[in-house]
Amino acid sequence: MLDLTNRTMTALLQEMLLRVTEEVNKRDGSLIKTALSACAWVIEGLYIELIDVQQQAYGTTATGGFLDLKAAERGVYRLPAVASVYQMQADLSTIAQGTEFADSSNYTWAISSDVLSGPDSEGLYTYTITCQTAGEIPTPSGDLRPLSFIAGLQVARFGSEVVPGRAIESDSSLRERYEESLVEIAFAGNIAAYREKILELTYDIGGSNERVGALQVFPTTDANGVRSGGHVKIYILSEDLTEASQELIDAVQTAICPMYNGVAVGDGYGWAPIGASVHIASVTTKPTLEIDVTVLLVQGYSLSSVVPQIDTNIKKYISEQKAGWTTQIAQGIDTAKVIIREAFIYAAALIEGVADVTDVVIKKGGVVSVGSASWNTTGVSMEWIDDETTVINITE
Question: Which residues in the chain land under pLDDT 50?
């Protein structure tokens, strides 16, 4: 790539003046210098545009639509924004799909399923409701108000989250997947091909689109984790790197290698090549993670004033380690694992108001792990850190 950063107006003007005979007045304010200054200014602008053209021609520096075009050459496309889907509880057994509601933040939602269950002990029925604005939004809660009159409706409120909203894929994420496609050459049936296809597809789960967030492929491995030719074992995680639901597992199984009478026969009716029996699974064990941190506070600070930030820092570190597992997998590291280290917990707890961290104890599944604890994925099982069973205790 040409280095054009030194092609400034000053440098260009100097070069031009060197080509003018000394018999001509070239001092400031002279006719020739004034004229050439305007030319140099225009030419500098052209060089600036040329620098941008160069940058947009390479995947490592392209941005926006230019990066989209570059990635498309490798069959890699930017992931679109995904709308949030929640359960809605209402006191009517029949509300038409498409009926619109608004939440307290004035986001519009539409019923996206027929009634799923009910009535419960409160006489409420459950539906799914989809945000009409794709992307990440503030976590909704509380009551919903209908945008048109619904006879008999007294109660309409949010239930649990079904599909988290997701913003359109960033340049950095798309670039990472593009560069990954250059390293791993996919062809039918190899590990890179399974990864590429499963991560690329969108799966219809109860009327909502879901994607796989990460996966690990074990070739020549059957459903029980035993080495066996003609079989492939694949562990998947949901888009937010949590345990995949059975619905998502079934959807991926159907797309890649449909089951017949509970058996993945490998007859070629899915994406997998003929003769490859592919078995899709998710997390098999979720050992509890407990972290005990003892701190020495600076005079004037209370434990309650430092706990929220320490808790946030530790959870962020855990999330980064889980995301790091996906990077190891993408790099072809078949021994990839999530490792939680005491040293990084110490660092996460050393915030303003903490004079020292006097002790850190990490327990995996109730057993103390000295120095660090690791979560492994093998052909037989997949261990994973569950946020809901992670306990962080901070004391002084």
Answer: none
